Amino acid sequence: MHVFDAILISEVLATIIYTVLGLALFIGCFWFIDKITHFSLEKEIIDEHNNAVAILMGAVAIALAIIIAAVIT
Questions:
Q1: Are 22 and 68 in contact (CB under 8 A)?
Q2: Contact at 8 Å (CB) between 26 and 65?
Q3: pTM to 2 decimal places
Q4: DSSP character string of the chain
Q5: How far apart are CA 26 and CA 18, in angstroms?
């Protein structure tokens, strides 16, 4: 018996769909946060080397990932 015999095509398809949905939500949330701030996040993090904004966006990324994973599950 092969290892992959128990994997159904529907399970693989569902995994791909949920992955794309999760990534779309994640990117959409980051885009929304970038639009509602009164400064450019990219400029602050890359050009100005603002560590506080980088840490804050990292925390937001972790929080979004947890929320999206909970919703998908």
A1: yes
A2: yes
A3: 0.70
A4: --GGGG--HHHHHHHHHHHHHHHHHHHHHHHHHHHHSSS-HHIIIIIS--HHHHHHHHHHHHHHHHHHHHHH-
A5: 12
The answer to whether 16 and 22 are in contact (CB under 8 A) is no
CA dist 49 and 54 (Å) reads: 8
Model pLDDT for residues 31-58, shown as the tens digit of each residue: 999 899 998 888 999 999 999 999 999 9
66 phi-psi bin (left φ>0, alpha ψ -120 to 50, beta other): alpha
Give the torsion through C-alpha atoms of 31, 37, 64, 58, to 10 deg: 100
Residues, the chain: 73
Of the candidates 3, 68, 33, the one whose C-alpha atom is nearest the C-alpha of residue 41 is: 33
